[in-house]
Structure formats: structure tokens, C-alpha cells
Hints:
By secondary structure, the protein is an alpha/beta fold. It has a single domain (2-351), classed as Aldolase class I (TIM Barrel). 47% of the residues lie in helices and 15% in strands. The strands form two sheets. The chain has a seven-stranded parallel beta sheet. It binds iron/sulfur cluster. Iron/sulfur cluster (SF4) binds next to loops.
Amino acid sequence: MLAEILEQVLAGKRIDTVEALQLFENADLSDLALAATTARNRHNAPDRVSYVVDRNVNYTDICNVYCTFCAFYHRPGDSKGYVLTREQLQKKAEETKALGGTGFLLQGGVNPDLPWDYYLNLVRFLHDEMGLWVHGFSPVEIHMMAKLSQQTLQATLLDLRSAGLGSIPGGGAEILVDRIRKKIAPLKGGPDQWLDVMEAAHEVGLATTGTMMFGIGETLAERVEHFHVLREQQDRALARANGGGHTAFVAWPFQSGNTVWEGKIPKPTDAEYLRTIAIARIFLDNFPHIQSSWVTMGRKTGQLALQYGCDDMGSLMLEENVVSAAGTCYTVNRDEMNRLIRSAGYAPWQRDNVYGVV
Ligand code: SF4
């Protein structure tokens, strides 16, 4: 049975959820590496690995969703919470561009005190005045904006796109299964809410990414179910042929530090990460790109993930402390990324947020 499934993958045939679970439970890691690499090379040049130079910017950390796994937010009314000022945003934008960066990955907090205009003006400022690609807003934020604007999700997204929104990161998917969402983020809405926003984005022709945060108490079957709803959504997006759809999938393990789960849930091992990412590459046969999560797994495992189906190293992750340091930080960061990719046996190339060549 296992050998047949692997043969099917090598022959380019789609596998179903039962077969994916078989691979999760029984396949050797080395077999998964071969199958995932074969799948990867159907979508991507075998000898090249991309990365993007952008910056994660959280315009606010005030949030009223209170996800149990989140150590980032402050409650509305907490004096430690912030909303970035225009001057702070401008400084971050200028630093990013000076380092060869092309965009912002822009996300909150779901801040109940900001009006609809705030978001349109924020995107306009970053896009029109700062000249950045705005890869912005997780589905839970867009859902809230639709309520603020009193429009459909599609109309809300069209307004954001007119203001300069370029694409949407898939943050906040966690595990797209009711049981897990209710347990870890009861106020965030079920899987349907995340999927509905992404569906609306695809309907209006926007590019998005699909994500998964795993290792939060889900079963392997629930991980497969997560892959399954993403693959079905991507099938629908590709059938529309309007430019909308997921450009990439990225998975990372739950980090429990400073949350109520600390010490209660073991962090997934490197082997588990590699197994998960390889099966994602095999199962998500309609996703062009799979990102390695070196930021959470460490550089070595991030590098190793390139042998398990990943074709992209994600972002350089310019950080405040790094960016504000002397110019050598940029050289070190970019050199290090190029070195990591080269020493894994690939040629590096810099992309933008929708996988165009920079
Ligand atoms: S919605 Fe985002 S910022 Fe808010 S609590 Fe959840 S993960 Fe944290």
C-alpha cells in the first residue's frame, strides 16, 4: 500500500486524504524526501531557491480576539498596547527600502478602536507614498473590516486593493478544523471564516498564501484535513483563472513560550516538521511554492527542508534591531541567506511577495 502511494506520487498522480494519512503514519522520511522533491521539481526549477526581502510590520498589537496561543497582543485599553504612528511607519519603510526590501508583511491585532478609513489610508500611505508592496492583513482582520465598512467581503477587498493592497498573507489559519479552532481561538471564528475571506480574495483576483501552525494538539488526520480544504480551495481558484489563488504554503510549529500552553505541549521535532512539510508538498499538488520556516526551525532545519519539498526560504525577516544597526547587518543577512541556499546546493534568487523576480 505504502509503495503504491509513493509510486503514485512519483508518477504525478494526486493522492487522497486516506493515502496522505498513510504517508504521515508509516512512510520513511527518506522516501518522503524523494517524493516531495519530485513534486517540488514539477513546479519549480530544481536548482534554484528563492527568498524575499521584506519586513514584518505589526501596525498595532491591540487585539480583542485573545487567542490562547498568542503571546503578542495587548487588550484594548491596556496602556502597553500600541498603534504605530505615521512617522514610525515611514521610518520602517525607508529602512526597508534602503536594505533592498520590496514590501511589508502587514498585520495587526484586531483592534476595535480603529475605523475603516484607517486601513485604507494605511495601505495608501505605504503603497502610494512609500512605494512598497503591501502583503497585508490576515483573514480575521479583513473579516472585521467588512463589518466596519458594512460591505461584503468582496467589496471590502476591492476597496483595499484600490487603495494599494497587493496580496494577502494567510496568517491565522492555524489548523482549519472546528475542534482545534474552538480549543485554541474560540473568538476567531471557525475554519469557514478563514476560508470565506480567502475565497472572496480569490474571487476578486487577489493572490494569497496558505499557512498552517501545527503541533497545537491536533491529530495527524486533522493536519491532513487542513491540507484537504486548502487544496480544494486552490482547485476552485485555479479554475477561475483570474489571477487569484494561493501562491505558496508555509507551515510552522506552535511556539508555546509565554502562553497558557507553555510546558503543556511538546514542540514538534525536526523530523516531524520535515515529515509535515514533505506531505504538504506531496498533497498540495496545485500550490506552486512551499516555504521553509527557518525562522522557527532554525537555519539548519530550514536548509534541510529544501530536501523535503521546499523551494523558497521565505523572508529575510528584517527586524527592528537588525535594521536599525549599521549597514553591515544587511550585508550579513543577505549574505547569510545566499550562503544558506548555496551550501544546500541551490542557486539563490530574490523574489517579490508574489514570486516575481526582483
Ligand atoms: S488574532 Fe492575532 S494578534 Fe489577536 S490574539 Fe489572535 S493571534 Fe494574537
